Fold this sequence. Notes:
Layout: E1 2-4, H1 18-21, E2 27-36, H2 39-43, E3 48-55, H3 64-90, E4 95-102, H4 107-112, H5 116-119, H6 122-125, E5 149-151, E6 157-160, E7 168-171, E8 199-206, E9 213-215, E10 236-238, H7 245-251, H8 257-264
Parallel strand pairs: 3-4, 9-10
Antiparallel strand pairs: 1-2, 2-3, 4-8, 5-6, 6-7, 7-8
Helix pairs in contact: 7-8
Amino acid sequence: VFDTLRLSSPQHIRLPSTYVRGLIKPKSSCLVVLEQRDETAHNLNLPLLLACTVHLTSAPPSETRKVRLRREEMRATLVEISEAISVIRAAGRSCIVLLSGDFNAIREEFVFGNGDEFFLSAGCKTVHPPSRRPPSTPLCGDALGDEIARLHADGSLELCCDALDGGVLKEATFVKHRKGTGELLEPQCTRAGISKVIDFMMVGSAGLQGPPQIAGSFGPETCCGGQNRCNSSHVVAANSCLVTPSDAKRAANNITGILYAVTNW
Length: 265
């Protein structure tokens, strides 16, 4: 369905290479620009697809050095996406942005680091077995540097990138809560043996008529404030879980979860 736009593409889109130039580089990660093969789609100047997948450094939040590295890897990823968007927009095109992969940390770490605010957060308190605090100085406060992430009012993750419509990538894999109570409707786990979510899919856009809308954070929602029809040019993504509730519950078991995950996936 898609063609990768390489350096010789007629669109003259040449992706930057922050990962290659810099010292901070997520492992097993890549970024590509895709265009629909359909000639009609090209003639209509439909948005390109800027797809990025990452595998950030693995370590528990108690290891401050690895937490700092993981944060810088995410920052480098957002810079890479931003520079790619600049090139795409300079070529007169718009794009849909997808960022997915193994972030190796829960949402709150990218917002708070691994200090007191992190360990007191609702997301950290749901992790079982509980996360251990760092034995020495944590990464928090001013040491975090510029903001790279925030939590939406519903608890979902937003990654900051000024080049995007609305300035954020929005999480499209957020596990639903019961509105007004904070009660989980589905168990949270994408890391076998521990009840925590560390894998995400984020969505954004550049050059469209507004930021993406994610349906279903608190239940069924419709686009554009409840209108039956939407004539705007923006992305509407369905919120979905990466694993089924039953699989998540079994995988989260700190004794048998890893065995279950390995033998079933």
